[in-house]
């Protein structure tokens, strides 16, 4: 078929491939340097309880000064980090900054736990898990104030090493949240094996609530499963009041989304939380 289309077409595809491959390599090299120079930072997005208070928050990595001085979104550079092994130092960097934020919260007598995103591949590496436990131990932060967000791609892997990593982190006191729930390879039997504390309803099911009948049904089902398994539920991507009202009315524990709060650089988020607390006292 390529021949029929003429060589021009083939050359076009090759050029496209070449551009993509080059962009990947360029990103990988720049990311390697950014990690070495500690140039990645974290943003924090609050999660709200029914009474409107900030009950927890999610940490999101930021690369503000990428190639050509432009920011690169995690949607683009996380896959590059995963493919190149850079995901390990990247995650330790994010974890380290999160632990510092937890210490600053503790110093201000604020007990807001933080969630950090972990790629599935990390759970294959026992040495990486050692590193995580060591870092948390050194920080003297209570591991119970840290939640790890995993995704359903972890379900694809039923190997002993993955289960062992989860068991060890869980035994150490870290909690687990299942991110983007419903988009992947849901196998409800694994909900128990993963020692989960929390499910996060993916944004695509929150979209068009309460108008969309399918999404209404899916969200109600997730909330009902979670209730029976005694899991806390966070809705992601809450962008308007009608969505928030529907979710709250059906017993969703926590709401996260642009309606309530946009991810904010960690230091300014911390200042905001501390200021709010001082005003209350
Ligand atoms: P996620 O973990 O599902 O994070 C939620 C994403 O949704 C974030 O995008 C957040 O900014 C965005 N978001 C929050 N509220 C709303 C809303 O109301 N509407 C819309 N449209 N979006 C909302 P972000 O920061 O670009 O991160 C994208 C993804 O990159 C994350 O999805 C996560 O899978 C990954 N990621 C981010 N930080 C890390 C990290 O430190 N490690 C790893 N492994 N992955 C990360
Ligand atoms: Mg997440
Ligand atoms: Mg998510
Ligand atoms: Mg998501």
From TrEMBL:
Residues 24-277 form the EAL domain. This is PAS domain S-box-containing protein/diguanylate cyclase (GGDEF) domain-containing protein. It comes from Marinobacterium stanieri. The chain holds residues 414 to 694 of 694 of the full protein.
């Amino acid at each position: 078929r390529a021949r029929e289309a003429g060589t021009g077409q083939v050359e076009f595809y090759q050029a496209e491939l070449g551009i993509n491959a080059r962009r990947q390599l360029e990103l990988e090299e720049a990311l390697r340097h950014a990690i070495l120079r500690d140039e990645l930072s974290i943003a924090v997005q609050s999660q709200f309880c029914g009474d409107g208070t900030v009950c927890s928050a999610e940490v999101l990595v930021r690369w503000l000064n990428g190639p050509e001085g432009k920011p690169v979104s995690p949607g683009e550079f996380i896959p590059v980090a995963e493919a190149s092994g850079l995901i390990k130092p990247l995650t330790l960097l994010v974890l380290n900054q999160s632990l510092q934020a937890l210490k600053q919260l503790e110093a201000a007598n604020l007990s807001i736990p933080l969630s950090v995103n972990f790629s599935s591949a990390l759970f294959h590496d026992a040495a990486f898990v050692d590193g995580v436990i060591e870092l948390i131990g050194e920080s003297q932060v209570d591991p119970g104030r840290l939640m790890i967000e995993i995704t359903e791609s972890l379900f694809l892997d039923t190997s002993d090493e993955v289960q062992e990593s989860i068991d060890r982190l869980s035994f150490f006191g870290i909690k687990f949240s299942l991110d983007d729930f419903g988009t992947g390879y849901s196998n409800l039997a694994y909900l128990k094996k993963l020692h989960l504390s929390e499910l996060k309803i993916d944004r695509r099911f929150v979209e068009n609530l309460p108008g969309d009948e399918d999404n209404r049904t899916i969200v109600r089902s997730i909330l009902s499963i979670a209730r029976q398994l005694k899991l806390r539920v966070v809705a992601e991507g809450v962008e308007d009041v009608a969505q928030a009202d529907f979710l709250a009315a059906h017993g969703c524990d926590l709401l996260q989304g642009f309606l309530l709060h946009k991810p904010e650089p960690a230091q300014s988020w911390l200042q905001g939380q501390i200021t709010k607390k001082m005003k209350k006292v």
